[in-house]
Amino acid sequence: MGSGWYDALKNETAQPYFAKLKEFLVAEHKAHTVYPALADVYSWSRLTPLDSVKVVVLGQDPYHDVNQAHGLAFSVLAPTKPPPSLKNIYKQLKSDIPAFHIPTTGDLTPLAARGVLFLNTCLTVRAHTAHSHKKHGWERLTAAALCAVAQRAGARGVVFLAWGLPAQKTCAAVGIDETKHLVLRSAHPSPLSAHRGFLGNEHFKKANAWLEEKYGPGEGIDWAALRD
Q1: Which of 14, 64, 68, 150 is most open to solvent, judged by the fewest CB atoms within 10 Å of its CB?
Q2: Catalytic-residue membership of 51
């Protein structure tokens, strides 16, 4: 885990629930394939340091098929092609950001390095079994991570992108101060719901407009940094 995040979350990792979570993960690794690889479970914390966060994209479960999850919500590494939800995210980015060119790959690392925290509420999953690590403790840790972002002392406001009801419920439970931060809510980008309010939500345009209005020109995210 990145050092700034570790400092912010070390009290959580000392709690009994986290010890039980580790025991559960040891057993899962002995009996099953688990994604992402151990080295990537906290990659979000290394790629996006706590003090650099400008935008939070909240996911649910890591991808559970081969060569997909690598620790960033919605992201996949080459040569894996972008999954359907990510394709819809790209469609909305193209609509919002004229300079954005839809890449053929799904690696969101360049955006993570520019202050976009791609955080899943659950950080691991059993291969081919969605939500298999739900309610074993990850949700409490990642809620604490969201609180750490929202409560940074003297820090600037952040844009939280809450796509789908689970993400919206998580943001509500954390109690984000919307006089300081911007929470943008819509349907999830999955093919089942994207046409019910995700496509056309203008979240990327709105996020940049808010960041630049509050903090000045150039303070938005360079979404066009994603390139093949």
Answers
A1: 14
A2: no
Q: Which one is catalytic: 7, 40, 51, 61? A: 61
From the CB of residue 75, how many other CB atoms can be counted at a distance below 10 Å? 28
Sheet of strand 159-163: strand arrangement: 116-120, 55-59, 159-163, 182-186
Please tell us whether the domain made up of 3-225 is placed in CATH 3.40.470.10.
yes
Q: What is the pLDDT of residues 177-200, one digit of tens each?
A: 999 999 999 999 999 999 999 999
Closest CA relative to residue 159, chosen from 111, 194, 226, 99: 111
Q: CA-based Rg of the chain, rounded to a whole angstrom? A: 17
Which tokens hold the place of 46? 């290394």
Q: Is 205:182 a contact under the CB 8 Å cutoff?
A: no
